[in-house]
Amino acid sequence: MNNESILLAQKVASILKKKKFESLQVLDVHNITSLADIFVIVVGNNTKQTKALADDIEDALSEEDIKVIQKEGYQTANWILMDYGRVIIHVLYKEDAEFYGLDRLWQDGTTLLF
């Protein structure tokens, strides 16, 4: 895992800490998958909130010339996946977060505290 991944995850956590959400988890997964270094999993209470969280992340990072590579799920807003290369952000509606259990699926990852 490189410092750029850590710095980006810190920026995302900082952006989110100013917002309302159900839960936030930042996981170091670089030892258990080649998909990414870090997963950021944030859970919102409703789909309006998940869209707002995704918008806030994208807008704030865009201001620093950090562009999302791929974004999926925005229309339904149940599970919005934002690919920033080595950092992948999952913005989930509470019910979908419980159903899919990403926190359980990636429980072997190391929780990062920012």
TrEMBL record:
Does the keyword Repressor belong to this entry?
yes
Q: Which GO terms describe its biological process?
A: cytosolic ribosome assembly; negative regulation of ribosome biogenesis; negative regulation of translation
The protein's superkingdom reads Bacteria
List keywords of the entry alphabetically.
Cytoplasm, Repressor, Translation regulation
Subcellular compartments: Cytoplasm
InterPro entries xrefs: Iojap/RsfS/C7orf30, NT_sf
Which Pfam families is this protein grouped with? RsfS (PF02410)
- What SUPFAM superfamilies does this protein's entry cite? Nucleotidyltransferase
Q: Which GO terms describe its cellular component?
A: cytoplasm
What GO MF terms are annotated?
ribosomal large subunit binding
Describe the function of this protein: Functions as a ribosomal silencing factor. Interacts with ribosomal protein uL14 (rplN), blocking formation of intersubunit bridge B8. Prevents association of the 30S and 50S ribosomal subunits and the formation of functional ribosomes, thus repressing translation.
Subunit composition and interactions: Interacts with ribosomal protein uL14 (rplN).
The record's similarity note reads:
Belongs to the Iojap/RsfS family.
What is this protein called in UniProt? Ribosomal silencing factor RsfS
Species this protein is from: Holtiella tumoricola
Upper classification of the source organism reads: Bacteria, Bacillati, Bacillota, Clostridia, Lachnospirales
What gene, per UniProt, encodes this protein?
A: rsfS
